[in-house]
Amino acid sequence: MNRRKPNNSRQSLGVALLRVSTDRQFQEGESIETQRRKTEFVARRDGIDIVRFFTEHYSGRKSDRRVLDDLFDFLEENDDIEVVIVGDIDRFTRGGTETYLALKRQLRSMDVALLDTTGIIQPERNRLEHLGVEYGWSVESPSHFAEVFMAEKAKTEASDILTRTIGQQIQLTREGYQCRGANFGFRNAKITTGDGKKKTIMVPHEIEAPWIIKMYELRADGSWADDAICEAINAMGYQSRPMNIYDKETRRVIGQTKPKHLTPKQLERFVSRTIYCGVKCESWNQGKPVKAPIEPLVSISLFNQANRGKVQIKEHRDGSLSIEENRLSYTKTRHNADFLLRHVVLCHECGKPVVASRSKGKSGNYFGYYHCNRGHKHWGVNKAEFEQTIANYLKSLQAKPGFLPLFREVVRDVWIQKNRSFEEDRKLIETHVNDLKDRQNSILDRIIACTTEIAQTRLEAELEQLEVTIKETRKKLNSKQLREDQIDAFFEIAKKRMEHPEETVFSSATKPQLEKNWSFIFAQSPSYQNLLDGTPQLTLLYRLNRDGGADKNLLAGQLSLGWNTFEQQVISFLE
């Protein structure tokens, strides 16, 4: 590719590269406008027509600068461009000597010259020009050493600036002071410390702070759904902070974002931020929590209560703090009357508990539904339809006429038989244990009289095995047996639940009570499809009501076979 060399005697074509690193540079000092004026002045002076300005808001230390890719692509497509103008070498790159020389060699391979507004970069010359020949080694830049010095200086200067600014910010952050914009709910304020230095802290925002405090109070109450909390906070006038929108080229403010209402996802972010209880935890402090010199909006105890175990702050005796996160093992225990059956009915696809949500319709009303999409195709059922299906099935479990008094009679008969049998078994077990003890004593006598090591080892092993057998046999003697008063107490509970199974489940006041009522009916948590088909696994009491009805002989036979299961269910339910 052959390009014409820039010549002051004619108009040549060029492009300008303008770069700043921060928003502050956009508006002060070496701003884009300042660099643009300088490059235009040099272009007029040297007879160069700038056809395009490449602007960049990015660090010159980075290697992944998209503007350089755009620049070289433009030069490839337009072979009449002869020069690239930059404000200074540090505006071109801060990557050091190697990066600068590599970029300059790339421009040289395209027959494009590099020009700066400070006059450091001089045109290259051929040292054998007087002989009319040119070699690669004979072409050099008179300002090569000056350019290398300025490129290395630009890199060192960037490191010095970052060391001073970032180092100071890290130190202030570790002391708990503020080095950036205030968090929502606070505003920044300047204070003068005891040593006379001015530092920035956060103070409660007059309008936003009450919203944050109310979020924590409602969340800690435990009876509010996140959607309801959001509605209550939005009714108080909550709005997110408007953010400035900047022009990519000039970095001038061209508008503002629209304020948004509080959503459950944003609520979760607010509640989990430790800064609201006066604790800062940032990477500049190696993730260690420190108490910030601010007035907290909520107490640490309220913070812990609102997060319900997912994020917990602990205060130690020495004054230090620690933060514990337990998000994976966290399970929701809050009772939600709007979605009573969530986490109780299982998904028929993955076997995990279904979840519940509410979505807002076009009318502005919320519509609830139960759903699941964990590792499979999403499915969902309208809340009313879902709960009606459960209610219909529970109604079908109502005790059949005459079942309860008959079953009570059968239980008493079987219990008497089992107790009589157990007493007989107890005598046999005690006799067996005594026989085992006699064998132990006999083996001990043989060990004492034994003279060979091999025989003694075998006798000791036999003695240990007898001890294990005795312990296992005694467990049968110590096993819990169902008492008559427990049977009476169980039937009082069973009578109410079996006469009104639907009301018992849907009137549960707390989630633990709901789970207890649920386990009274179902041996295993059923899926929605099981309830829809009428095929869940019921506890023995409900199975007998379904299969045995008022047939005394059938009830007695089935109860005798499943007595151990029935006995365990009664004892565990009454504990």
TrEMBL record:
Domain of life: Bacteria
Gene Ontology MF terms in the entry: DNA binding; DNA strand exchange activity
Keywords: Coiled coil, DNA recombination, DNA-binding
Chain segments annotated as coiled-coil in the UniProt record: 456-483
InterPro entries according to UniProt: DNA_bind_recomb_sf (IPR038109), Resolv_N (IPR006119), Resolvase-like_N_sf (IPR036162), SSR_resolvase (IPR050639)
Keyword DNA repair: no
All copies of domain Resolvase/invertase-type recombinase catalytic, residue ranges: 13-176
UniProt keyword DNA-binding present: yes
Signal peptide start and end residues: none
Protein name: Resolvase, N terminal domain
Lineage: Bacteria, Pseudomonadati, Pseudomonadota, Alphaproteobacteria, Hyphomicrobiales
